[in-house]
Design goal:
The complex is a heterodimer of chains A (422) and B (254). By secondary structure, chain A is an alpha/beta fold. Chain A folds into two domains: 253 residues, no CATH class; 55 residues, no CATH class. Helices cover 20% and strands 38% of the residues of chain A. In chain A, strands 2-1-5-8-10-12-14-16-18-20 form a ten-stranded mixed β-sheet, covered by helices on one side. In chain A, strands 3, 4, 6, 7, 9, 11, 13, 15, 17 and 19 form a ten-stranded mixed β-sheet that branches. Chain B has one domain: P-loop containing nucleotide triphosphate hydrolases (Rossmann fold, 3-Layer(aba) Sandwich). In chain B, strand 4 and strand 5 form a beta hairpin. In chain B, helix 3 runs parallel beside helix 6 and helix 6 packs parallel to helix 7. Chain B starts with a strand and ends with a helix. Classes of the chains: A alpha/beta (422), B alpha/beta (254). At the A-B interface, helix 6 and helix 7 of A face helix 2, strand 7 and helix 3 of B.
Chain lengths: 422, 254
């Protein structure tokens, strides 16, 4: 038996937790002990052996402290032509003096606000890492958008990560979007250096009636990073939630995205792109719960996998008996560029209502050789032709990002990679 | 310009071309005809550099260069153009976009400056008129949802843009109605010059009413078994291919 599966290693994390949210932390701790680190054969984590990975890669199971971040670092991290709010974090700690705000947005530390129902959306008993975060997060941010307030400029969460000895970073964010409000968030993870660390993040979002929330995540960290992200959203009547999950690197990354559709006429659009090389292992688990009639969900996840990289996609759609007239669509397409790359893809539909439109599909293929030859026969060299085809494949996801500065930045990063020997 | 000597090629071990000899000079139009399965499209593919075909014997010289040792893109840059029998659909890549990349790579190879957006656009407008193709079509995903005629017109449009020395039209008439056939042929005829040559691969004679060949060759069982002037095409149209098959097969048994 390893020490980690016996939970001895995480004791340090529990001990280091601040003396705030005591009952909440206690609940998290109990919930973590009840579930334990996912064992090797645990169904939810069966392709992504995080316990083993953490054990072999993390030397120190302690919280990473806040590190000094300079204005230059912030400046160079912000996307070209980005105009909006910038919220800066170091190892999950909010850095107020480097951050900006705007009208209609209220920013507080979690510890400054009483009675935030943390854990009511991302429930600790649903996932051991959510429970671990609830028990051990240091502090986090409470963001709220006023009712009827439409914030047109995007809100960039700039998360700098840096740890020397493979420590743990536990960011926690609570977002409340008021009725008839609108906001776009960009959650951008950056490694300051190549040292390994473990990010265990929880984001809870509550979208009020007719709210429109976009949440884009860009993971562009070092290839030493182990990361678990739990993003859980509740939306109510007529509300819309749009998300994009872009993963370009990492050692082992697990993204759990859960959307609870709690009001009729609510819509969820969830898109993702993973572009993997080396030995990166990226696992996207999505979970959409249609709890009421007349709601809609659309999912499109695409992956390009080179070298010995590994991808996992698991898309669960749950349509409850009462949720008649549900529209739920899901698509996962993958291109494998090497014989050693692996993808495990699994749609998981549980439909209890009988008057619904649901569809799912997944494909795994290689680069289209005929198309490649066609482009070459017009005078385009093989590498450029490959890049054109891969870019076209990925473009379907990128086109759905409305924020220009983010989309252009990603397009640029991807083209640099696809145009080379990717 | 093009000199094919004793060309043998096979696919997955099955010989398809069994000794092709052909000389094409600048300014000439050659028609390659023959029954289904005779190796017509294979010849076109081998010349363009499709990798599935293995050349087992023979040589091909194009403007003095050993063509078979060049990559498909370098053949295109040297001036070989293949109009595909079945143009590929590529979602997410527009004709305009990819063609600009292609043209500039070809120009770079030939030591020419790349075309800027304005010059590229004006060149496009000029060549679009040649095949009566709409600009809207060209900004859509390449060939995706195009009709058969639109795809073939797009092939000839690309040919016009790339300005090849040797154009190989592989069954360009297949799937074309009479109007599209006229437009496509007009385009090809306008692009002909004293310094370029065309190889028309076709099963039927009707395309040759529009693109008049200087020479007609009949391919059968991987060899050119008969060559003649344009009248040979008419004879084939009238009598079919059986008499040639009989002629060849009987000599083979003797």
């Amino acid at each position: 038996m390893s020490t980690l599966t016996q939970h001895e290693s995480v004791l340090g994390l529990f001990e280091a937790a601040p003396a705030t949210f005591l009952s909440l932390r206690q609940l998290g701790k109990e919930s973590f002990y009840a579930q334990g680190m996912p064992a090797l054969k645990a169904e939810e984590y069966k392709f992504t052996p995080l316990a083993k990975k953490l054990e072999s890669s993390l030397t120190e199971f302690h919280p990473a402290q806040r590190v000094e971040i300079s204005t230059e670092q912030v400046k160079s991290a912000v996307f070209p032509n980005f105009k909006g709010v910038v919220l800066v974090f170091s190892n999950g700690h909010f850095i107020a003096h480097l951050s900006t705000t705007t009208e209609g947005l209220t920013i507080n530390l979690l510890s400054e606000i009483e009675n935030t129902p943390l854990g009511s959306i991302a429930k600790p008993d649903k996932d051991p890492f959510t429970a671990l975060n609830q028990a051990t997060f240091t502090d986090g941010l409470h963001l709220s958008i006023e009712n009827k307030k439409s914030i047109e400029s995007p809100i960039l969460l700039l998360q700098f990560h840096q740890a020397q000895g493979g420590q743990v970073i536990s960011p926690r964010i609570w977002i409340e979007a008021g009725d008839f409000s609108k906001a776009t968030f960009i959650d951008y993870h950056i490694s300051v250096d190549a040292a390994p660390y473990f990010v265990n993040k929880v984001v809870e979002i509550k979208g009020g009636v007719h709210a429109n929330i976009s949440y884009h995540s860009l993971q562009e960290e070092s290839n030493q990073v182990i990361e678990v992200s739990n993003l859980v959203t509740d939306i109510y009547q007529d509300a819309q939630f749009n998300s994009t999950q872009i993963t370009l690197s990492g050692d082992m990354v697990r993204n759990n995205l859960t959307l609870n559709l709690l009001g009729s006429n609510s819509v969820g659009n969830m898109n993702g792109l993973y572009l993997l090389q080396g030995k990166s292992h990226v696992d996207n688990h999505t979970n959409v719960d249609h709890t009421i009639p007349h709601a809609e969900s659309n999912e499109l996840y695409k992956g390009i996998l080179a070298d010995q990289s590994r991808g996992v996609f698991n898309g669960k759609i749950f349509v409850r008996q009462i949720a008649q007239k549900t529209n739920a669509f899901q698509q996962n397409n993958n291109i494998l560029l090497s014989e050693d790359a692996i993808i495990n893809t699994k749609p998981q539909l549980e439909i209890w209502a009988d008057d619904v439109k649901c569809s799912h599909g997944c494909t795994v293929g290689q680069l289209d050789e005929e198309a490649l030859f066609y482009l070459q026969a017009r005078g385009i060299d093989k590498i450029t032709a490959k890049g054109l085809l891969l870019y076209a494949f990925a473009g379907e996801v990128l086109d759905k990002i409305e924020e220009d500065s983010l989309r252009n930045y990603i397009v640029n990063q991807i083209q640099n990679r696809l145009g080379s020997n990717f | 310009m093009l000199s094919i000597k004793n060309l043998h090629a096979s696919i997955e071990g099955t010989p398809i071309l069994r000794g092709i000899n052909l000389e094409v000079k600048a300014g000439e139009v050659h028609a390659i005809m023959g029954p289904n399965g005779s190796g017509k499209s294979t010849l076109a593919s081998v010349l363009a550099g499709r990798e599935e075909y293995e050349v087992t014997e023979g040589e091909v010289f194009f403007q003095g260069k050993e063509l078979l040792s060049l990559s498909p893109e370098d053949r295109a840059r040297e001036g070989v153009f293949l109009a595909f029998q079945y143009p590929i659909e590529i979602p997410g890549v527009s004709t305009t976009n990819f063609l600009r990349t292609a043209l500039n790579q070809v120009r770079e190879y030939r030591g020419q400056e790349p075309l800027d957006a304005v010059k590229f656009l004006s060149l496009m407008k000029e060549k679009m008129a040649l095949v009566e193709i709409d600009q809207k079509l060209l900004s859509r995903s390449l060939n995706e949802g195009f009709s058969g005629g639109e795809k073939k017109r797009n092939e000839i449009f690309q040919m016009a843009m790339l300005n090849p020395v040797l154009s190989i039209l592989d069954e360009t008439d297949s799937g074309l109605d009479i109007d599209a056939l006229r437009i496509v042929s007009n385009g090809v005829n306008k692009l002909k010059s004293d310094t370029t040559a065309t190889i028309v691969v076709t099963h039927y004679q009707r395309l040759l009413d529009y693109i008049i060949p200087d020479f007609v060759h009949v391919l059968y069982k991987g060899r050119i078994v008969k060559s003649g002037k344009k009248e040979l095409a008419l004879e084939l149209e009238e009598k079919g291919y059986d008499w040639i098959k009989e002629e060849v097969d009987s000599t083979a048994t003797v």
